[in-house]
Amino acid sequence: GGKERSLAKLIQDRLPAPTRDLLHLAGRLGASLGLPVYVVGGFVRDLLLQRPNQDIDLVAEGDGLRLARALAKELGGRVREHRKFLTSMVIFTDTQGREQRLDVATARLEYYEHPAALPTVELSSIKMDLFRRDFSINALAVRLDGSFGQLVDFFGGQRDIKDKVIRVLHTLSFVEDPTRCLRAVRFEQRYGFHIGQGTEKLIKNALSLKLMDRLSPQRLYGEFRHLCEEDAPLACFTRMDQLGIWEAIAPQLGLTPTRKALLQRLQEISGWYRLLYFEEEPLPWLVYFLGLNHGLNYALTAEHYRRLGLPEALRAVVLSQREHLRSLGSQLARRQAEGAAPSALCALLRPLRLEFLLYLMAQTSDAPLQKNISRYITQWRRETADITGDDLRRLGLAPGPACGRILAAVLRAKLDGQAPTAESQLALAASLIGQEQGKEEAARPTPLAH
Ligand code: CTP
Fold it and tell me: Which of 92, 252, 321, 396 has the fewest CB atoms found within 10 Å of its own CB?
């Protein structure tokens, strides 16, 4: 039946040559070492779904470390070993000079002793390895040594991909690892699948058993980050809400209609920002964290920060910027209404991290203000004066704090369109230097007359 299907042609037709070559190499080396070797998990799922996936996870039946070493030798790379988990990573540089990683795990042969006179059963270790995984669609493998390309499907993964179903392999899956509740939602939304009925019941069961409480903040953070890096995090957040997952993580994190609308805006604005291809990238988890905590007080936000395991190093910054934003909102609206110059808006926005700027832009319903925040993000914040400290020195100003003051004033004039060219900025600088020197004259003690 389905177990015999070969993906050799799919591999040949769909995968980029370097990936294909790696799979063949792993197969050849496995064969020469006498180790059955498979590519497993998300890579196989995405191959069947015809979606790109660069993360090659290999499993060898037997000593995976030997395979990893052989691969490293062939690829001119090195091996990082995690003996405790029987895994290793091959790190090498590809033909384009980029660093690549390959995971190699060991599946051990397992023997099941039966009592009394029954014989010992040897289970194929790849089957045991796959049985420990989260969902049927992730429990597929492709044989690489010997019959290259043979699909190994013990648990109906192929069928579930065809039926677009997320299904666990056994009833204890969410007990073994409650982060799988979030993974189920993530894969469901990413692929437009649906969580199977039995699996959904098991999720709800896990939630009512309060299994989420057992998850460490670090594990939650890992999953939260993955969710925020999806193309449509809001769809995941909404589904989590529906299933009661947010409530299980922190009761106040549920999606109110206001928060949902805000998160929708944040998703759009994040997409807009991504298309600008600026070097500076916002932290997606921070952008969405702000949206999820909209309307909550400082103490609750701080508690959620801790519960979701967000990085401690940013905690103080994030919480204080959040407070700052509360007073800033009304100030900005007032200044905008008064027709404030760009430089005045810049001065107010300057202290904010990019994530907070995106949040502010999503939050405001004042269209002209929104436009100005977007201008600040795309242009104004990057602007510098067209003249430098050297120019000021040539105009006779000694290095010192006055230099910075004058350059800042020149930049303000440039932003406000009062000194658009380098010449006009030089002229402005010269007159400002005159004023500075005037001030110094005035500040100098009057010499005694006698
Ligand atoms: N896995 C699991 N349970 C988890 C995490 C991972 O069973 N809690 C297994 C799945 O078989 C998964 C594989 O480990 O396919 C690799 O995990 P990971 O790299 O996190 O996921 P991918 O399936 O590759 O998903 P993504 O496309 O999001 O990287």
Answer: 396
